[in-house]
Amino acid sequence: xxxxxxxxxxxxxxxxxxxxxxxxxxxxxxxxxxxxxxxxxxxxxxxxxxxxxxxxxxxxxxxxxxxxxxxxxxxxxxxxxxxxxxxxxxxxxxxxxxxxxxxxxxxxxxxxxxxxxxxxxxxxxxxxxxxxxxxxxxxxxxxxxxxxxxxxxxxxxxxxxxxxxxxxxxxxxxxxxxxxxxxxxxxxxxxxxxxxxxxxxxxxxxxxxxxxxxxxxxxxxxxxxxxxxxxxxxxxxxxxxxxxxxxxxxxxxxxxxxxxxxxxxxxxxxxxxxxxxxxxxxxxxxxxxxxxxxxxxxxxxxxxxxxxxxxxxxxxxxxxxxxxxxxxxxxxxxxxxxxxxxxxxxxxxxxxxxxxxxxxxxxxxxxxxxxxxxxxxxxxxxxxxxxxxxxxxxxxxxxxxxxxxxxxxxxxxxxxxxxxxxxxxxxxxxxxxxxxxxxxxxxxxxxxxxxx
Length: 452
Hints:
This protein is an alpha+beta fold. It folds into 3 domains: about 5-90, Uridine Diphospho-n-acetylenolpyruvylglucosamine Reductase, domain 2; about 95-205, Uridine Diphospho-n-acetylenolpyruvylglucosamine Reductase, domain 3; about 210-410, 3-Layer(aba) Sandwich (Vanillyl-alcohol Oxidase, Chain A, domain 3). It has 14 helices and 17 strands. It has helices at about 5-10, 25-30, 50-60, 110-120, 135-140, 150, 180-185, 220-235, 270-275, 290-295, 320-330, 380-395, 415-425, 425-435; strands at about 15-20, 40-45, 65-70, 85-90, 95-100, 105, 160-165, 170-175, 195-200, 210-215, 240-245, 255-260, 285, 285-290, 305-315, 340-345, 365-375. The strands form 3 sheets. Strands 10, 11, 12, 13, 14, 15, 16 and 17 form an 8-stranded antiparallel β-sheet that branches. Strands 5-6-9-7-8 form a 5-stranded antiparallel β-sheet. It is globular, with a radius of gyration of 21 Å.
């Protein structure tokens, strides 16, 4: 890569080409998880699909490792590579809303916050995530769960079409009528098959929800989890609720049920009454709020610049023994920023889709267990990573052996057994799709499906 080649690439871009020492270089390579500190040789800050095409061709011609940064809320760090070319989509963040079709089109670098803001202005919502700084690309391609999942399905189930730059630099559309095999793979197969420069989603008429947290003392954790298990199985699809052992901002260990009800407020009282009357909570923040406020409720708990190490797995049955272990390891938490969370997804439209109808195979998933390690001091890395690994290992016997792609740990991505657990019954079909669209494994900074 001599200076002339670099100048040629820079001249082709509507955005900019950043190298070490350039004004935007450090900001572009810095992502949400502070544990990731990598240094690409080049960063192509793309403003258009043509920029992405130029970057892909350049990387192929010069045999460069490629990483793709979408919104940047990236736990495992795949968005940034050392020494190669980072294709940065964060400037491709425009959102448009078609109110007649109730659809939202978003650039590949959009965050959920940008989509929520644009859609909320028109009384619509795309089912996506729980933290507004999450990038839509990684979320949707890995599945995508959030506060509307039980009523309106996963993010990938609401994908209508995608514009994709493939490994050979072609621009194609994937939808139910065009490149149907690629469309199948994008809905749960991760970033293995190309760079999505634009997403079109189905949106739904949700403007207000009843949402918030009911917080109990940590001493009540076992009873709270048992209640949560029984309550959620009877709850209507309009209610999505998580249960977590966490630490309040004032340093108090607690157990919280976080709930979002997106149905008719007139019916909310009877649905939420058992939740509000159970036990002796120390706080109840459930209230009628704008849906966009629900989407930002967790933002303060997951800020840029903290160090993060996560593991997760699906659990079919939340038994009393499993609950006991969850609480035991929650009481051993080594950082007040960490949490042990149970998320209940089952029963809605996503559960009625066949496990081979999209690349996302875990359609019968009941609960997802997330062991969320988060801290600030690099000197404490070993201590907090060990807590995550220990808790995950102890709870693994209660797992069904499957993993949610968007929560797979960084050290699980190099283990083919773990990757097969991530893609389940669809793994071999995804390998065949990879052979078609990316036979050289050009896109490999991801939950990688090898074509060979």
